[in-house]
Design brief:
With 109 residues, the chain is an alpha+beta fold. The chain is 20% helix and 38% strand. Strand 3 and strand 4 form a beta hairpin. The protein is globular.
C-alpha cells in the first residue's frame, strides 16, 4: 500500500462549508471538496477579490475553511455575508493555524 504523505502533503487538503448556529457554534456540511484545482481556485478568488471596508452586521451566513488534516493545519477560514443587494462580502479570519503546535502547548500545562 502506498503512503499518502508524499511531497508536501497537499493532496490531503479539504475545503468545507459551514453555517453558524450561534456565535460559538459552526455546523459543517458532511461533503468536503478535495479536488486541488477547486481548492486553489477558491483561494485565488479570495486573494484577488477587491477589498471593501464594509462589515455587515450579524453572523455570517456561511463559513468556508481549508484544512490539511495530514499536517494538522487549518490553512484558511473565510466568513461570508450576503448583502441586501445579493452581493457576497467576506472576511478572511486567519491563515495557517497548526493544530499540533496548539496541542503541544496545552499539554505542557
Amino acid at each position: 500500500m502506498a503512503s499518502s504523505s508524499l511531497g508536501c502533503g497537499q493532496q490531503d487538503r479539504e475545503l468545507v462549508v459551514g453555517n453558524y448556529t450561534d456565535e460559538q457554534t459552526i455546523v459543517y456540511a458532511e461533503n468536503r471538496v478535495t479536488d486541488e484545482e477547486k481548492i486553489e481556485g477558491f483561494k485565488m478568488m479570495i486573494e484577488t477579490s477587491s477589498i471593501t471596508n464594509e462589515r455587515p452586521e450579524g453572523l455570517p451566513q456561511y463559513v468556508v475553511i481549508i484544512n490539511n488534516p495530514a499536517e494538522f493545519t487549518m490553512e484558511l477560514m473565510v466568513n461570508f455575508w450576503i448583502t441586501d443587494s445579493d452581493e457576497f462580502v467576506f472576511l478572511k479570519v486567519w491563515k495557517v493555524v497548526s493544530i499540533s503546535k496548539l496541542m503541544k502547548n496545552t499539554s505542557r500545562m
